[in-house]
Amino acid sequence: MLTQINGLHHVTSLASGAQTNNDFFTKVLGLRRVKKTVNFDAPDVYHLYYGDQTGTPGTVMTYFPFPHARRGRAGTGEVATTGFTVPKGALPFWQERLAVFDIAGIEKTSRLGEDRLMFRGPDGDGFALIEAEDERTAWTANGVPEAAAIRGFHSADLRLSPRDADASAELLRFMGYEKQGAQGATTRYAVAGGNDANVLDVTVTDAPRADQGAGSVHHIAFSVDNREAQLAVRKALMDTGYQVTPVIDRDYFWAVYFRTPGGVLFEVATNEPGFDRDEDTAHLGEALKLPSQHEHLRARIEELLEPIVD
Ligand code: ZN
Fold first, then answer.
1. Does domain 7-304 sit in CATH 3.10.180.10?
2. What is the 290 CA–ligand 1 centroid distance (Å)?
3. Domain regions of the chain by residue span
4. Which of 38, 123, 197, 202 could pair with 153 as two cysteines, CB 3.0-4.6 Å apart?
């Protein structure tokens, strides 16, 4: 069993409009945009990052907004819901706030003893705010008080078909996730001694396969401290038979990718060097940052990208 994985690093999803996406995460949910860059593999598409003050691993929700993208269809073989932790007693504030912003799908539920508020993002994305103990310092902005502000990720929900359930559970255990409990068709796994975003809930269902589009999670990334830990994880996965990409430089972290038996794209990302490597913390996320290999295309890229008004 691996011991290097801390929990989630970031969650990356697909969106349609960049402005709508930006407004939802900053003005409704009160997160900080910590990086405005482009998809390194398709530099005419933004890559927007939202998180806490510095984009601490375990707090970072990221998006590729494709203008006019068609919406994804929910199903199996995907991350169905991304969960954020909020302080105990914060859900009534959020229930009212989300209603004021006309957010879809607001529904209060509970799972494994935790109250959660489910809702939909602008492209139908599945989110939950979950009340839990959490020592992380929140970014507070746009009228969300400290007593209610999002602390970072709580968990991600994997929705899997029954035929992928056993192999996926085996993979999670190999990655260091241990079974913590179950409710109905959902089993909870957590990394002991991990970061505060160390929970994965796996729901097994007969639903058809998901069709990825706007509102779908593209991949989830798991945090490791450094490149040495990442290489150890990569080698162990490959020794187990997984096809893992070479290490890729994403400027703010180093990444490797592989697919789960259920077809979900997993990434292992380093906590180093971080989002403040090329910007002052005070101005994080304000300027359009381009990786050096695309810097010569800046004028063309700026022309192609939908302007974002903050
Ligand atoms: Zn990623």
1. yes
2. 16
3. 7-304
4. 197
